[in-house]
Amino acid sequence: MNPFLLVIILGIVEGMTEFVPVSSTGHMILVERFINSPQVSKGFMDSFLVIIQFGAILSVVAYFWKDLTPFVKTKEEFNKKLSLWSKIIVGVLPAGVIGLLADDYISEFFMDNTTIVASMLILYGIIFILIERKNLKGNINSIKEISYKLALTIGFFQCLAMIPGTSRSGATILGALLLGVSRGVAAEYSFFLAIPTMAGATLLKLLKNGLNFTTLEWQLLGIGSVVSFVVAYIVIKWFMGYIRQKTFKVFGIYRIILGILVLLLMK
User: Fold this and answer.
1) Model-level pTM greater than 0.70?
2) Is the Cβ–Cβ distance between 124 and 170 less than 8 Å?
3) C-alpha to C-alpha distance for 126 and 173, rounded to whole angstroms
4) Quick one: which of 95, 67, 96, 49 has its CA closest to 228?
5) CA angle, 264 as apex, 252 and 253 as ends, to 5°?
6) Cα angle at 201 between 174 and 228, to 5 degrees?
């Protein structure tokens, strides 16, 4: 397949799956596995699958700019932003530490393992359905009500997504729901945590690669990131409305079906 067409497809897949609980990395690994390009090396593709997520992260910044911007006029607004970003930083600490220590191990043993991706899709699909049967409502209705201890605990749930096929947004949102956070706030905080988490993962991949990409590879990274940004922005707008009214059951069913199909195709 033409490498430009491949990264456009991957950009669309990333944008559609990054912020819904179906595992964006898992989907991109599967797409890249079954639709490959001989002009793109495995080493570059491993980095691409992480770096492309930065485009989707920028869509979070754009969508929630009014909530995230540090450029405010009053001291009260500044303190509010400072509290928000402090809780984001605390929440991202577990992923930052564990991710830094385990990155090489994850890349070597998990990123190219389709069986693990399929298994995690099925396992967490079942978990999503079981948790949703509890019909959790949550009594924490704003990020202001999230304590630093709670933010840190939610951050540990996010670490579950280091294994491809899990879903960062799914693990984080459901973890927050189990801890008493309302659906809308859980989704919003999950999106905010994605900013430093994936920005850090992107920077780590760039530094480890030594920025030694070819001209073609830089072009592929740019195209994939732009596509993922546009698609992710549209998905965020849709998902924020969806999550407040409906459950993850449909995503759980989708994950189970997809996981089974992948296992069958591997035979």
Assistant:
1) yes
2) yes
3) 16
4) 49
5) 10
6) 75
DSSP for 96-163, please give it: HHHHHHHHHHHHHHTTT-HHHHHHHHHHHHHHHHHHHTT----SB-SGGG--HHHHHHHHHHHGGGGS
Strand, coil or helix: 71: coil
pLDDT tens digits, residue range 111-131? 667 888 889 899 999 998 998
Percentage of the chain exceeding pLDDT 90: 33
Question: 63: closest CA among 193, 237, 253, 263?
Answer: 237
Q: Which two tokens stand for residue 126?
A: 């079942």
**Closest listed residue to residue 244, CA positions, set 191, 186, 190:** 186
Task: Tell me the torsion sign for CA atoms 175, 206, 17, 84.
Answer: positive
Contact 252, 166 (CB under 8 A): no
The closest of 231, 264, 237 to 24, measured between CA atoms, is 231
pLDDT in tens, 84-98: 999 999 999 998 888
Placement of tokens 């993922």 in the chain = 228
Beta-carbon contacts of 64 under 8 Å, excluding residues fewer than 6 positions away, are: 188, 191, 192
